[in-house]
Each structure stands twice: as structure tokens, then as C-alpha cells.
Description:
Layout (H helix, E strand, L loop, with lengths): L21 E3 L4 E5 L2 E6 L4 E5 L1 H9 L6 H11 L4 H17 L3 E3 L15 E3 L12 E4 L26 H18 L6 E3 L3 E3 L2 E8 H10 L11 E7 L9 E2 L28 E2 L3 E6 L5 E4 L3 H16 L4 E10 L2 E6 L6 H10 L3 E4 L2 E4 L5 E3 L5 E4 L20 E4 L15 E12 L6 E4 L2 H9 L5 H18 L2 E6 L2 H13 L1
Parallel strand pairs: 2-6, 10-11, 17-23, 23-25
Antiparallel strand pairs: 1-5, 2-3, 3-4, 4-7, 8-10, 9-10, 11-14, 12-13, 14-15, 16-17, 16-18, 16-19, 19-20, 20-23, 21-22, 24-25
Amino acid sequence: MSSVPTNRNAGDPPVRRSATALRQRPGLAQVVIDSTTIIYDARAQRSHQLNASAGLVWSMLSEGRSLESIQAELAGRFPADIQDVQSDTESVVGDLMDADLVVTDGELRDGTDLPAGSLLSHESQPHETGSHVSQQHEAGSPASQPHDSGPHKTNSHVREVQRSVADTSREADLAATIEGRSGAVVDDVSRTPCFDALGFTFDVTGPAEVIAQLDTSLRTIESPLPAMHHYTIDDYQPAQGQLDTVGSSDSGEGGTGEGGRDAVADQAEAPPPAEPAAELVQVRLDDLDPMPASRSDVASTVLRHANQRACTDNSVALLMHASAISTPDGVVAFSGSMNAGKSTLVAGLLRRGHTYVTDEAVAIDLDDLSVAAYPKPIGIDTGSYDLFPELAGSANPHSTDRWWVSPLDIGAGAAVTNTSTHPLRAIVFVSFAGDGSDHSEKLDPPDAVLEMTSNLFNLAEHGQAGLDAMARIATTLPVYRLTHTGLDPAIEWIETTFTR
């Protein structure tokens, strides 16, 4: 067994040398791609990559084994000095224990003895495996009905949902509810049609001017389904004794969920700035506590919160933090960290005539890897305003921190039909280099899986099934890393790679 560099230092305490059995901690998801083992720890929201030597030791820990028995077996397999074998094996096991991936039988506690993830193998093109024992990545943790799997394209608006007499009656009831909450008479109240955000169906009732703007912004995700959730917007009424100026406040219900759900933060509802109470409104979802919002930013509050719920409520698909376009051969997704420019990139591609799928969450089916469309409004941050001066008049006026623009108002306005399904073609991890240089590379499958684990909203929920799906993507589809210096060179690379 060749020497394997590890993370342990000479002064670290030795691994237990008793006959106590060591084993893989139950509940870990794991997959082998070629000679590289990838482990996903949902409890810690971390992923680990083991090279071939460390992976061999790891596989021997699938059932209870003492350190001495592992060392003895490896010494018989490899023509190396017995002391080197013992030292290397102890270092590998020590690293695995330091990462909380290996436990002793005595350390297993009630409630943790769950079946360990199956160790599945995936073959891919030959690639070079790194020499490290364990590479750790922070891993992400953000229902649509399937249609036929072929690509879909439409330039038309989503069908309009007509309001019936019953709808009008319900609006009156909701107006009365708002009046009861706020103590003010609301004369001009309107309600949106139902919208479907990855299975989170909702409508909004509030001032007609705000509702009209939400109708325009959200028309690409209108749905004939009944709304299961209801937002209401009414005047903010401070409690007795409250100061006239109200500062920022948490939303109560709207916070991000566990682990990698924090990736939704860039689209989550932001607390309103301090301003007089008369300039604030309340946004309430169903019977939950109201969220104070700036009157000038109320549409953004609703859009952010609904998008957050779309990402945190969906437990069917694997949700990748990404924007995406549709090509004749399938969906190309653009993933990356917050502020990587995913929305700016997809808006630029849409302006060039490409077909829009989403700019927030790419919903991947665990079985056939198809993508369910979510053509929500595109959120363009203030730093990108200069790139799209023509969109200033199309942005929702009830949002001050970013432009929320319907994809139908960009370029030719081509967007796929909401909830339609499309085959996944490729994934590109994007980052902005600023004054650096443009660079692209195709990732080896193990590195591709590690990148994906860092950009998923709900991997912790899917565990082994989610990791297996990522391994299938990495071994059957191209995955790239693109570092770019601006919108134009990024678009040039994408069009050259996928559409020419």
C-alpha cells in the first residue's frame, strides 16, 4: 500500500488500537465513481472525496473491523514495509474518525443505527484521481407534474385564468378580512390568479395597483390549479405603544430551512429598512404571522417569499441553485454561488433569443433526470442594471432592491411552459473573474459531483437517491466550470459550446 498524505499531524493522538470494532457511521450516502469514493454526510451538510487508497480502507469499514485486523489484511495484500502499512492505515482511519465518518460500536447511539447508504459504482472515462485522502466541501441541502420528455418551446403568454363570480365573491370576503385586520376601509382590492411555483400554488390579494404589477411579473407561472396558499397585503398597524419608526424584522415563518437551504438566501425575503410605520404594509401567508414590508418593496417581498417556499417545500425533485435555458437538445443549467451572475447570464442569453427555463431552481427528476420548468420572473441585481438599460421600464415598480422582470419582456420573450419537462443536457458552474481571464474546463465526474453537492437546496432530504442521481449526471452528461470576465465572453462560450 503506497503512502497516502493525510490531514493528521505527528502530534495528533493515536487511533484506538484495541479490539473494538470500527465501522462506517450509519446513515451516510456514498458512491464510487471509477476509483474515487464520494461520501455525503447529511447531518453535517458536508461531502468528502476519498482517493483509491483511502477508499479501500473505507470499504473495509462497511462492517465492524478492528484497526489491527485491517492493518493485518492490508499488510498481506501489499508488498510494502509493515510499519508503513500500519502507519498509513492508522492515518487514514484517524482522518475518517476526525471527520465523524467512522465510529466504534460503543459510540452508536439510539436513533442512529440506520441502514448505511449502498455503495454503488459508476464507470466513466479515465481520469486522474487526486492524492488527498479526504476533500471536504460544504454541501447544499433549495411538485410538478411530468409531461412528455421532449423539448418544449413557446413564445406565447401562459393562458389567462378568468375570474368567475365566485372569485369576485371571494375577493370581497378577503377585502373584509383585510379591513378587519388593519382597521381601515379597503375599497380598491384585487386578487391575482393562481400561480404555481414548483408545486407551491398561491394567489395574492391586496391593493389593485400592486396586484396588477404582480400579475404582469408572474404571468409565466400562472396555473389553472386551485391555489392552496394565499397571501394578503394590508396596511401596517403598529401595536399599542410601539414606536412610530419600525426597524427591520424577521419574517417569522419565512426563514430558510435546514442546512443547504441557506442557498436560498439571495432570493429570500429581506427585512424592510427602518421607516415610518405609515410607509409599511403587512404581507401575510395563510394564517401565519405577518411580515412587515416596505410599501415600495411589497412586490419584492411576495416574490422572494413565494420563491423561497417553492424551494423549501418541494420534496419530490432534486433542486439545484441554478438558472437555465432550453436548447434543441435539452436544458443547459448555470449553477454557482450567490452573486455568481446566474440571473444576469440567463437574462443576457434570453436577450440573444434563447429560450428561458428558470433563474433560481432547476428541478431535476431523480429517476429520469428531466428538468421541470419554473419560468419565474428574473431578478436582476442593481450591479447589473447598466447591462440591461432597456429593462428599466419593464421592472416591477414595487421593488427597490432589484428588478423583477418577466422573461416575456426580454428580447423575443421566449419561455418554456410552466411545469413542462425537458431532458437535461449539461451543467455549467459559473464564476466571475473580474480582471482575471476567461477559462473553461470539463470536470472529471468526481469533481462534478462535489460541485453539485455544494449547489443543491435539498440534498439532505434525498440522501442516497440524490447522490446516485448526481453520479448518473456526472458520468453521462458534460459538466463544466466556466470562469468569465463579463457577460459577452460568457455568452460567446455558451453559444459556441451548445448552440452552434
